[in-house]
Amino acid sequence: MFLKIAHRGASKKEPENTLRSFRRALSLGSTFIECDVHICKTGELVVMHDETVDRTTNGRGKIHNKTYQELLALDDGVGEHVPRLQEVIELVHNKARINIELKGRGTGHVLAYTLAAYYSAGWKLGDFFISSFSRRELRAFRKLDRETPVGYLLTVNMFGAIHFAKKINAYSVNPNVHRVTKHFVNKAHKNNLKVFVYTVDTPEQAKKMKEMGVDGVFSDCPEEI
Ligand code: G3P
Ligand code: CA
């Protein structure tokens, strides 16, 4: 099966990483939704791509210097608020799987404890998929959680990535659309790793990825591919 993962929600049409964007992705029938997380000053996991609020809100400054109440006062796009991860998990639950990308320092550790609480409350391993470019955060997550599927995101050093992914018992390697090759896909598959490619926004690119044998793609507009 070729997976289409709604990247930051339906982020071509809605403000990225907002509840509005995730709701739209669900209404389009997305079965897999990606979001990015950081930790704010008061310790909550919050959903945002950059480490500062500058690009996506009407505020300025680093997320880790702001309390959640301060973040809540910001406009995250068309009147949306900056969501806590829990809001996104509860919105998506039983409608789609959620891919949580560990962005900020310390997110691996905090997320492992957060998921443990969800598992105790009945959520299933298959509800979650964790990924990161950061080996440090993936290792920290794996130290506490040995079972949730994880994906290693990469830009360069493609074959070193397979080695690292195996070491942390990853489910997938997630390369950039401009770097992935058929040779890489074959090598990953030989090592029992799935390949999910970011970011694929045209039907032509999607077709090329399918032909290469990749297992799924991240897209800002999953309905168009
Ligand atoms: O997980 C795929 C993709 O989201 C990685 O890049 O910069 O959009 O987080 P970025
Ligand atoms: Ca991401």
The assigned structural class equals alpha/beta
Largest sheet: 9 strands, mixed
Principal-axes geometry comes out as globular
Bound molecules: SN-glycerol-3-phosphate, calcium ion
The CATH topology turns out to be: TIM Barrel
Q: Overall mean pLDDT score? A: 97
Q: Tell me the CATH superfamily.
A: Phosphatidylinositol (PI) phosphodiesterase
Q: Class, according to the CATH hierarchy?
A: Alpha Beta
Number of strands: 9
Strand order of the largest sheet: 1-9-8-7-6-5-4-2-3
For the record, the count of structural domains works out to 1
Distance between the termini: 15 Å
Helix content: 25-40%
Number of helices: 8
Which residues sit in consecutive blocks of at least 5 with pLDDT less than 50? none
What share of residues are in beta strands? Answer: 15-25%
Radius of gyration: 17 Å
Describe it:
By secondary structure, the protein is an alpha/beta fold. The protein has a single domain (3-224), classed as TIM Barrel (Alpha-Beta Barrel). It is built from 8 helices and 9 strands. The chain has helices at 19-27, 68-72, 85-92, 107-120, 135-144, 158-167, 182-190, 203-212; strands at residues 3-6, 32-39, 45-47, 97-102, 128-132, 150-154, 172-175, 194-197, 216-219. The protein has a 9-stranded mixed beta sheet with strand order 1-9-8-7-6-5-4-2-3. Helix 8 (203-212) links the parallel strand 8 and strand 9 (216-219). Helix 1 (19-27) runs parallel beside helix 3 (85-92) and helix 4 packs parallel to helix 5. The chain is globular. The two termini are 15 Å apart. 43% of the residues are buried. The model has no long low-confidence stretch (mean pLDDT 97). Bound molecules: SN-glycerol-3-phosphate (G3P) and calcium ion. SN-glycerol-3-phosphate (G3P) is lined by residues 7, 34, 36, 49, 101, 131, 153, 174, 198, 218. SN-glycerol-3-phosphate binds at residues 7, 34, 36, 49, 101, 131, 153, 174, 198, 218.
